[in-house]
Amino acid sequence: MQMKKSGKVYHLNLNKDQIQGAKYVLLPGDPFRCEAIAKKLDIQSKQIAWKREYRTWLSKVNDKSILTTSTGIGGASTSIAIDELAQLGVKVFIRVGTTGAIRKKINIGDVIITSGAVRFDGTSTQYAPIEYPAVAHYRVINALVEAAHQQNVPYYVGIAASCATFYPGQERKESFLGFVPRRFQGLTDELRRLNVLCYEMEASVVLTLCSVMRLMGGCVLGVILNRYKDGEKIALEDLEKGEENAIKVAVRAIKILLSSKNGD
Ligand code: URA
Q1: Is residue 264 scored above 60 in pLDDT?
Q2: pLDDT score at 4
Q3: Most buried residue, 4, 129, 156, 246, by CB count within 10 Å?
Q4: What would the pLDDT profile of 11-48 be if each residue is shown by its tens digit?
Q5: Is residue 238 in contact with ligand 1, taking CB distance under 6 Å?
Q6: Ligand 1 pocket: which of 200, 206, 228 to mutate (most atoms within 8 A of CB)
Q7: Mind spelling out the 3-state secondary structure of 134-172?
Q8: How far is the C-alpha of 62 from the C-alpha of 68, rounded, in Å?
Q9: Mutate which of 103, 206, 225 for ligand 1 pocket (most atoms within 8 A of beta carbon)
Q10: Cα dihedral angle (173, 52, 241, 106), rounded to 10 degrees?
Q11: pTM of the model
């Protein structure tokens, strides 16, 4: 849906002229992460829009336009960002996020490249039934793996659980309520046994919407805590470590995709 006269999509406050033909977007959750990501792509990057949680920067890599747009937290706001960017012609979507690992072997600062996601998000079922898989595009997975390799960032490829809430839905007792509703008690252990690697809140929406819309989607998640070893608390230095490595991998993956045969 575009606004009359300006042709701007409603929430992102962007039109086709502003994005200069961009086909690729990096999607952090936090608007305050956009500048660092965009400047890592290209030091001359510029902010082109900021409305609510949606902040967009435009970068140029080998003369190609690349966007960085923040999604806010969770499925609903992420679905709006993807839908409106798709309306403007964007084709490749890479979420750059953070995550809480639920497996003993995964360390702070490692990255998780999602091959798929458990759809606990509460939003993606409005685009496709729950039986529809949330899977990443193989070319995006390959580029992220190559990017992690090239930069010696330890990585895992696997399944994330994308939850509708940070507290009860991720089995956190340290919330205002102070308890976990019965339906979520034991969830972390069950997911571990089901070979799920981590908790986060947006991957399943990115992957489901991109598949449904015939777009390319993928996610790289920096590990900022290990629920197995660290409990529920997050340390600032661990947040920075996880974010930094996820950004490093995502930026390199964009460059790898651009330089590949089908990179236009
Ligand atoms: N993001 C989440 O949703 N959960 C975590 O534990 C860490 C980051």
Answers
A1: no
A2: 66
A3: 246
A4: 999 999 999 999 999 999 999 999 999 999 999 999 99
A5: no
A6: 200
A7: CECCHHHHHHHHHHHHHCCCCEEEEEEEEECCCCHHHCC
A8: 16
A9: 225
A10: 50
A11: 0.96
Residue in this structure with the two tokens 């502003």, named with its chain if needed: 18
AA letter at 248? K
Q: How far apart are CA 89 and CA 75, in angstroms?
A: 21
Query: Which tokens sit at 253?
Result: 């993956």
pLDDT in tens, 50-100: 999 999 999 999 999 999 999 999 999 999 999 999 999 999 999 999 999
The full DSSP string for the chain is: -B-TTT--BTTTTB-HHHHTT--EEEE-S-GGGHHHHHHHH-TT-EEEEEETTEEEEEEEETTEEEEEE---SSHHHHHHHHHHHHHTT--EEEEEEEEEE-STT--TT-EEEEEEEEEESSSGGGTS-TTS--B--HHHHHHHHHHHHHTT--EEEEEEEEES-SSGGGT-S-SSS-S--GGGTTHHHHHHHTTEEEEESSHHHHHHHHHHTT-EEEEEEEEEEEHHHHTT---HHHHHHHHHHHHHHHHHHHHHHHHSTT--
Q: Which two tokens stand for residue 57?
A: 């920067």
- For ligand 1, atom 8, name the residue with the nearest CA: 99
Q: Is the CB of 117 under 6 A from ligand 1?
A: no
Tokens of 228: 């197995």
Cα–Cα dist 92/158, whole Å? 20
Residue appearing with tokens 């046994």: 193
